[in-house]
């Protein structure tokens, strides 16, 4: 059974070290007090039983030496300090040397049906004795004293430790000392245990949004505190990366938003400054085009943040091959798109977001392709793999990771789509990461090969010949984020 101590809210110590120390001290005090009380009772009972046994044996030895007409004085024995033979009138008939000339040890007169009784008699406050009173049998009384009842008293002085409660004082002192030592040991052990935690707390307080490069000290070993330190450092590292990415994103977003806002401001200012030289309709059309670009940029920024904050609880099973086929069907005319699907892997995700990723990859591939785009859907081990490959100029190996950063656009991308924002591939990678997958660019003999990997929910391979999608016509292009 687990014993818990519940401190009142007002009295509960705020420090874990104090709380554990007080709890252990109180528990030790309670447990040792109970053990001490049991020990005290056991010692007292054992000593009393030994004294009673000795006094009774002393009475038996003396009674065995008595003869009619001859009552010998009791021999000195360590079993009893005092021995007396008392008649029914309370007169001492015979006694040991120590009890000679003394009044009866007690006035107790055992009845015939309970001839042996034991009591404790105190001569003074610091001296008590255990007395055993024996009523001699009626046959002996008739033989020795014509039937007059006689009593034998045997007394033995109790140890001072029992009389003056020295035993209780000693046990109480031992309990207090042991409880104090246990509390002190707990204070030391918990203090040493929490020392790394204090260091972690102090370093975490020093870490601010202005300086997230601090790391907490890591204690040796692999216990819970060491794991806490490792986890805290990992958290600080991720927080630093997130804050750095957020600042960089905010800086780049403000830079991208500044251009259309500045252009709109210049157009409005020019129209107001030179009203006679400006055509109102032309100015409004330019302003409308600028606001459309600004709105598209804001929409993509919102889409990027929504993807980063998406929750997996809204995911549903999706047939990835069917989703890719539906997106290919949107395109018509222009560069043909060939689909090769050997299975129908099922993944969990948001259809709108995954469809946006596939659409973005197809749009970029068609924009940069020379003659065709090949799309493959398959499953490898426990992953569904979608490959989108064009036969264009390709992307240099050193730029393959840069194109997934926000607002990064290469020269070829700016040439083919001057109005792009550079967020499409960043959103696509964030979407794949949010779904537990990945989006990378792999080596290929010609062009660019985008590979989307998503964890399988349940794959159902179908032995079908590679399927080819219909050639597509021009469709409304997405913003180019390649390059």
Could you characterize what this model shows?
This protein has 483 residues and is of the alpha+beta class. It has three domains: 12-206, Beta-Lactamase (2-Layer Sandwich); 224-308, Signal transduction histidine kinase, dimerisation/phosphotransfer (DHp) domain (Helix Hairpins); 312-461, Heat Shock Protein 90, CATH 3.30.565. 47% of the residues lie in helices and 17% in strands. It has helices spanning 16-65, 138-145, 160-163, 166-206, 224-273, 280-308, 320-330, 351-368, 411-416, 424-434; strands at residues 82-87, 92-95, 116-124, 127-135, 150-157, 316-319, 337-341, 343-349, 373-380, 383-390, 438-442, 449-455, 458-461. The strands form three sheets. Strands 2-1-5-4-3 form a five-stranded antiparallel β-sheet, with helices on one face. A five-stranded mixed β-sheet has the order 7-9-10-12-11. A hairpin with a 6-residue loop joins strand 11 (438-442) and strand 12 (449-455). The chain is rod-shaped.
Short recap of the structure:
The protein has helices spanning 16-65, 138-145, 160-163, 166-206, 224-273, 280-308, 320-330, 351-368, 411-416, 424-434, and strands at 82-87, 92-95, 116-124, 127-135, 150-157, 316-319, 337-341, 343-349, 373-380, 383-390, 438-442, 449-455, 458-461.
């Amino acid at each position: 059974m687990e014993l818990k101590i519940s401190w009142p809210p007002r009295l509960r110590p705020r420090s874990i070290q104090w709380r554990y120390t007080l709890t252990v001290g109180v528990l030790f005090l309670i447990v040792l007090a109970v053990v001490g009380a049991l020990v005290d009772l056991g010692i007292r009972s054992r000593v009393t039983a030994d004294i009673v046994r000795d006094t009774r044996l002393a009475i038996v030895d003396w009674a065995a030496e008595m003869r009619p007409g001859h009552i010998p004085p009791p021999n000195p024995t360590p079993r009893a300090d005092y021995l007396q033979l008392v008649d029914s009138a309370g007169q001492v008939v015979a006694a040991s040397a120590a009890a000679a000339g003394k009044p009866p040890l007690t006035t107790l007169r055992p009845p015939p049906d309970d001839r042996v009784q034991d009591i404790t008699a105190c001569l003074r406050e610091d001296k008590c004795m255990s007395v055993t009173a024996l009523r001699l049998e009626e046959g002996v009384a008739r033989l020795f004293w014509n039937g007059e009842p006689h009593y034998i008293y045997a007394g033995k002085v109790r140890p001072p430790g029992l009389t003056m409660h020295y035993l209780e004082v000693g046990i109480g002192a031992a309990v207090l000392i042991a409880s104090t030592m246990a509390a002190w040991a707990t204070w030391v052990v918990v203090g040493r245990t929490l020392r790394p935690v204090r260091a972690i707390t102090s370093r975490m307080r020093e870490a601010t949004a202005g300086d997230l490069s601090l790391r907490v000290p890591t204690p040796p070993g692999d216990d819970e505190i060491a794991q806490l330190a490792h986890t805290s450092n990992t958290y600080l590292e991720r927080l630093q990366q997130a804050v750095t990415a957020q600042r960089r994103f905010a800086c780049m977003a403000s830079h991208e938003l500044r251009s259309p806002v500045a252009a709109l401001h210049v157009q409005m200012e020019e129209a107001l400054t030179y009203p006679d030289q400006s055509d109102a309709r032309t100015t409004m059309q330019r302003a409308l085009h600028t606001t459309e670009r600004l709105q598209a940029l804001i929409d993509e920024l919102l889409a990027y943040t929504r993807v980063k904050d998406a929750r997996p609880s809204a995911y549903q099973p999706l047939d990835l091959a069917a989703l890719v086929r539906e997106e290919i069907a949107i395109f018509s005319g222009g560069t043909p798109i060939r689909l090769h699907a050997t299975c129908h892997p099922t993944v969990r995700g948001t259809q709108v977001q995954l469809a946006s990723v596939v659409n973005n990859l197809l749009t970029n591939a068609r924009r940069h392709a020379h003659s065709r785009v090949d799309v493959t859907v398959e499953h490898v081990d426990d992953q569904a793999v979608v490959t989108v490959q064009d036969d264009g100029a390709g992307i240099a190996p050193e730029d393959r990771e840069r194109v997934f950063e926000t607002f990064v656009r290469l020269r070829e991308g700016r040439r083919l789509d001057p109005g792009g924002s550079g967020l499409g591939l960043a959103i696509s990678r964030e979407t794949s990461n949010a779904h537990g997958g990945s989006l990378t660019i792999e080596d290929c003999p010609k062009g660019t090969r985008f590979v989307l990997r998503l964890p399988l929910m349940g794959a159902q391979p179908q032995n079908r010949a590679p399927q080819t999608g219909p050639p597509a016509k021009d469709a409304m292009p997405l913003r180019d984020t390649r390059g």
